[in-house]
Fold each of these.
Amino acid sequence: MADTALRDAARRLAAVSDTPRLDAELLLAHALGISRDRLLLAGADAAVPPGFADLVARRLAHEPVAYITGTRAFWTIELAVGPGVLVPRPDSETLLTSAFAHFGESGPALVLDLGTGSGALLLAALDQWPSARGLGVDRSDAALAAARANAARLGLAPRAEFVAGDWAAALDRRFDLVLCNPPYVEAGAVLPPDVRLYEPASALFAGSDGLDAYRVLMPQLARLIAANGIAAVEIGATQAAAVAALAAAAGLVAACHRDLAGRDRCLVLRPA
């Protein structure tokens, strides 16, 4: 029965996950082809499909749940994700709450997402503000393919364009809202096996101090932000002062916003 299978799976997954029960529920719902909500409401007596054991085994090998199920909820949308593309984190939603605090319901007209990955930030912004249009930039062909597919699946493709690029080097227009979650992990940092073994290193690591991407980005951001616009840039929890200094050197004023756990997570940048 489903309840017994969930209890057993959660007990085993506790060795590799901080959220073993949630992982088990998501995997069983995936195996059954139903939503987790439906599983919780009506699936206690469901027969457990044979494939569930294989899904649990994959998670026990540290494979991220999002790669196993192929989906990840983010903000108000659900994204398709897979190997080669960073799994969107709830922490990154801090960029969107910061942007909403600035723009409110009216929203920005034009949004830029640098290092778009799965398209999470851009597509969440377009879903939040139905009159906005946006551009996502990434160097990874796998990421761009995932972002375009997500835009099409969510019905946002008419308002979202995705292009290959090296950050904003080739852009010469201004945007009301610039979103960016760059790599910011220092080389040699110890990461959980789920991340280290499966997620793309190019989306994680940024030099010996984790600041290499910011050194490139800050001078570019200064010329991208429209009048009365902002950039919302994700940072590591200990990087606020260092990244704010790089921003100041590029003529930007920074305000730090914290995530739900109270950690520094987003710098909101404006031209000085």
Amino acid sequence: MRRPSGLTAYAFLYLAFLYLPVLFLPLFSFNSGTIVAFPIKGWTLDWYRQLGAQDTLIQALANSLMVGMVSALMSTAMGLFAARAYTRYRFQGSAASEGLVMLPLVVPGIIVASSMLVLFISLGLKPSLTAVILGHTFLALPFAVSILKSAFDDFDVSLEEAARDLGSGVIETFWRVTLPVIAPGIVASILVTFTVSFDEFVLAFFLSGNRPTLPVYIWSQIRFPAKLPNTLALGSLLLLASILLLVVAEYFRRRATKSRV
């Protein structure tokens, strides 16, 4: 059955509307001029070479990497047990609790950030990278639960039952039987939640204090026209890194799906 030509044209226009502006980011990052406008004056790699000499940028990158890794591990660990509970057991309030876990996906980020700032200050926790980690873990948890629920959905429970019949305890069964089967889903969850944390701006802006993450650093630089070319180069590298992480995460998610077929 042939697809309507109008539908194909609409799909191309829709994709162009979404991604064409993003493609201008790496294009202008090679522009030798400091003004983002056509025509491009010339081509250069100078803006990329200058990135390594900026100590503040390197520190912000290190902050983002640390926050992203810790947040990804924490959200995936909590999401692992939550996903197992939601797929294995039926208990009173399970739907409500799952809805609460998914709530960060629909609550405006500015509301979450301001609420967390007030809560942390009232508890004696000043804006810091620790506060950012807690905020990003809360934000990334729904993504972890969704991915890991998919990994658990069609898991053959008889494998666990067979292991217990052979004398394995609950922990040993989970470690030697369940975990290897859902490992691709765990890897996918870590990669996706790391990407969510690494790219997040609003919570980091409110909670980072005097130790900014990379998105906060980029925002502080983009206000100055002279620093815009460096920001475009940095943004292009981040765009490439995010795409690679999501491609790898999708690969492991598909592996998890195939292992259940």
Amino acid sequence: MELLYRSTRSDGRKVRASEAILKGLAEDGGLYVPESVPVLDKSLQEFSDMSYQETAYEVMKLFLTDFTEEELRGCIEKAYDDKFDTDEIAPLHVADGAYFLELYHGATIAFKDMALSILPHLMTTAARKNQVTDEIVILTATSGDTGKAALAGFAGVPGTRIIVFYPKDGVSPIQERQMVTQKGENVRVVGIRGNFDDAQSGVKELFGDRALADTMARAGLRFSSANSINIGRLVPQIVYYVYACAKLWKAGKLSEGQAVNVVVPTGNFGNILAAYYAKLAGAPIGKLICASNENKVLYDFFQTGTYDRNREFILTASPSMDILISSNLERLIYRITGDNAAETAERMKELSGQGRYTITPGMKEKLEDFRGGYAAQERAALAIRRIYERDGYVLDPHTAVAAAVYEDYRDASADTAVTVIASTASPYKFPRSVMEAIGEECDGRTDLELVDMLSAYSHTPVPRAVEELRSAPVLHNRVCERNEMKETVKEILGLA
């Protein structure tokens, strides 16, 4: 049975999965959601004997129903190959009384690789399926990791171009260097003078610019997105939560009737939403613990029922979480309204106009699966040091936020359920923050010198993705103002 997708903001035309992936964002500005969340048709026992690639097929076939088996297996085979430095793709590591789901073993050592390794293949397959001959222009804003993963995924892919905007002073030096050294004739990287929310809002405005779309169409170009607003990003993320549950089952850590709590360091709400979809699909997931840093707009939302971005934007050591507009939350709002597009659109209008909205008590009751928590930078740094000293295991600053929030949750609730913490980036992306947290003096040392120190402390080799940065030349140095994004895009595409 074919699963169709609809916009969160109107009851307009439903589209197939391949169309939703190609469009990225619905024409009314809404996000595509499945009409219903399909139920897993394999038992946990069956999943427990599968490889990551086999699990990916069994999960994704339920959501991407207009892809043939050959097409979908082909995309999976190309995505989850030797770009990953472990055969397991997403291994579990035991530390601090929890299971850290390591999602950073891909080409750019961040969890975005898990979906962005496959999205280019899904997108080009979708273009063929829909007889699209236009060149696809991937337009993306990044808070640090999506940018490099998208650049690496789409670099050299025929029929595509990619433009990534990032906050010039809002990412780590390693993150920035990863992006500005990216090779590929079809890739462009632009820093903006502003924060991630400025970049993300600017990209959304460009997607909604009909005059620009018409100009591009005449030139044989069309926009699509590699951000987690694209359902082609979200569906592959569901896979690793199912895979983690199955591996815990196989290891005897999970038995019939038990549920796994999941803790996710959260900014744009895509990763934890994928865990929620996995739960709705039948994966044995209990509490969904949403971990925020000082930009705790999501924590406040789960506490009060009011989402309010009218606050100071704080730059932290966990930059991928420095977000005040969590785009994927719209998909959850849509669900707790009872799939009411008009009500969802009204709240998004309030967010755009007033910077805030409040859900009803009835909607808030439907959030019982979620818990919010937050940890400031000092608290996260203590978690890095504590876990390193006790277990010899090194966390990056984002995962450390989740570890600190989990510690607080565990102490307050006495909940002893098996818990998976999404480990979203390699500590090698943030060597200065990590080594300072461990207690090492970092002044006078470059980030690449600190990488070598981190390798000695953690007894792990420097990842290839970081090693290559030592001699990589800077290829992208364009910077623009927030209000210059449209002209910058037109110039890059030869439309100016």
Amino acid sequence: MNIFETIFLGILQGITEWLPVSSSGHLVLFSNWLKIDTSLEFDVFLHVASLLVILLFFKKEITEIVRQPFIKKKSDKKNWWLYIILSTAMTVLIAGILYDKIDNFRTVYSVADWLLITTFLLLATKFVVGPNQKINWKVALVLGLVQGFAVIPGLSRSGVVIATALILKIKKRDAFDYAFILAIPAILGSFILTVQDFAFQWLYLVGFVVTMFVGYWTLYLLKMVINKNYFYLFFLYTAILSIIINFI
């Protein structure tokens, strides 16, 4: 990779990591289309930049969750620390089963197929009606399950977790917060699995900084979109992209 390709992939990661369109899927697509030689390790390195964005963006919510077991005053995020552990355990189980097979999914046509699954889940959120529910241990296990499958390029992690939470009638704010805070152990786990084979290149730092800057503002945009009930509209993009891939 050269510096321009690295900047481009950093911008791509910063946008697609948060929007429900699959960042890993886009990295596979553009790496193939533009003949950019990337690796799983580079993808994970950019995800670490995304991790720092989460820690900055959700610092108040994370502090609240961490403090809950040690204070008497309870909040809406009561027991979230336990639910995140349950979700993460389920994610580790599913992702561990799929990990050795991931390279088989790193093709443009596989990405197209899984983008369609993302599309259906996004569209389904349009038709959710009923009272808002709170996250419980059953919901936590389901969200951990779908996040585990989201290691497959084309199946958007933020998309499937937020969409599944909304389909389960979880409050919009809780669905948004939980989906991204849940990403913290998932990203850390991905980095740990690849760090032993990691071959650092200085260009990675360029992608890292670009991803952080673009990612923060993209996350802010997504929060606004969800609050205005426009989240489902991303199905148009994922559906069109999937169709384009199959006809190229």
